[in-house]
Amino acid sequence: MIGKWLSKLTLVDLPEPRRGMAAVELSGVRKVYVTGAGEFAALKGVDLKVAAGEFVAVVGKSGSGKSTLINMITGIDRPTAGEVWVDGMPVHTLTENQIAVWRGRTVGVVFQFFQLLPTLTALENVMLPMDFCDVHDPHERPDRARQLLELVGVGDQADKLPANLSGGQQQRVAIARSLANEPPLLVADEPTGNLDTRTAAAVIDLFGELAHAGKTILMVTHDEDLAHRSSRIVTVSEGLVLPAALPGRGRYG
């Protein structure tokens, strides 16, 4: 059953991307949720552009709309109004099947709690997106996964299960997994929330190196010191992106 479903996804056609756009472009994006207490506007007309190769930190108080903003960009949720373009693709117009295929090829997601499958080795976890999206020749996938683990500094942990890795090592494996299909955009939601200060700084350094190599990085964080190591800070407040995006102190961009 799962195999048939995956085969169906690989046959889904996507629109031709529009050229000449920023890596991420949001125009007039609103998101309204209907609750028992009435309507709640999580986003209130957001405009945002992120250039290719930027390392952008998204900050704001809890409930400000940060997670909703990220969900719009990754296609996890849909806007009530407005347009969301990522890598020239009109995400707001895609069907659920199209979004599944598009996300697998275009967006790498890194979570706070790693989300590694506990019964798979580090190597197998990194290979999983390649299998899911049928990217790269099956015989080449193990070597590519090992190369990615080497890239993030945990090549010697390839055959270990997540339970036998430290938190920092698990997050590095999760970053390697997010890069498996060579996505142009990497989205990280509080990726250092469960890491000690030193390990968190090392993860931010890794993000910076990836941005320097051409990846576009969007990172949600509550840590102001880490946010200032990005190339730009975007502040979300009460469902709006504040007009002045602050420059980061980092060398990445």
* Biggest sheet statistics: 7 strands, mixed
Low-confidence stretches: 1-8
Strand content: 15-25%
N-to-C order of helices and strands = HEEEHEEHEHHHEHEHEEE
Radius of gyration: 18 Å
Given the C-alpha coordinates, what overall shape results? globular
Q: Terminal Cα separation, in Å?
A: 44 Å
Q: What is the mean pLDDT? A: 88
Provide the helix percentage. Answer: 25-40%
Number of strands: 11
Number of helices: 8
Structure classification: alpha/beta
What would the keywords be for this entry?
alpha/beta; single chain; globular; 253 residues; 11 strands
Structure, explained:
The chain has 253 residues and is of the alpha/beta class. Helices cover 33% and strands 25% of the residues. Helix 4 (122-133) crosses helix 5 and helix 5 packs across helix 6 (167-178). The chain is globular and about 50 Å long. Residues 1-8 have low confidence and may be disordered.
